[in-house]
Amino acid sequence: KGFSSTFTGERRPKGDRIFEALGATDELSSAIGLAGEFSSEKGHTFVDQLHKVQCMLQDVGSNLATPLSSAREAHRKRTSFSEKPVLELEQWIDSYSEQLPPLGAFILPSGGRSSAALHFSRAVCRRAERCVVPLVQAGEADPNVAKYLNRLSDYLFVLARYAAMKEGKEEKIYIKPEP
């Protein structure tokens, strides 16, 4: 009948922003899974990190599916989301960034299949973040969920550049078209 249930048992329309955020997060995990498969074929050592991210996205989904306005303490305890995964992403970002040449221009999603799939994942991540921010602002989701998605998109960008570099693939740069 066009309704679904949250983890708290609350019935909401399928078009509710909670289900929109859950769908975007699920799509993000799928995109990362694809990027992980391409990256695995190239022997990248960061594939285990991508798998860990997918597991964290399950926890993100649990938090989103538990609107704080209807959650009991037992629900909140089971689906809380800490700052620890955010800090881990920041460490990973720093580690890969140190190995990359500085950016001198805007780059386009490119650099081989692994890199392009990671760029696609980054774009999906930004959309998921845009879906989650209103939930956080309304007090329905943990602010660390939005922080995680924000840092995750940065991680995916850096990782895309790193994959291109490791594979010896050229990143295409933005060139302003002639008028």
TrEMBL record:
Protein name: Corrinoid adenosyltransferase MMAB
GO biological process, one term: cobalamin metabolic process
MF GO annotations: ATP binding; corrinoid adenosyltransferase activity
Alphabetized UniProt keyword annotations: ATP-binding, Nucleotide-binding, Transferase
Family the UniProt entry places it in: Belongs to the Cob(I)alamin adenosyltransferase family.
Coiled-coil boundaries: none
InterPro entries named among the record's database cross-references: CblAdoTrfase-like, CblAdoTrfase-like_sf, PduO-typ
Family annotation (NCBIfam families): PduO_Nterm
Role: Converts cob(I)alamin to adenosylcobalamin (adenosylcob(III)alamin), a coenzyme for methylmalonyl-CoA mutase, therefore participates in the final step of the vitamin B12 conversion. Generates adenosylcobalamin (AdoCbl) and directly delivers the cofactor to MUT in a transfer that is stimulated by ATP-binding to MMAB and gated by MMAA.
UniProt-listed SUPFAM superfamilies: Cobalamin adenosyltransferase-like (SSF89028)
Complex formation: Homotrimer.
Domain of life: Eukaryota
Reaction(s) the record says it catalyses: cob(I)alamin-[corrinoid adenosyltransferase] + ATP = apo-[corrinoid adenosyltransferase] + adenosylcob(III)alamin + triphosphate
Xref: Pfam families: Cob_adeno_trans
Domain Cobalamin adenosyltransferase-like: 1-163
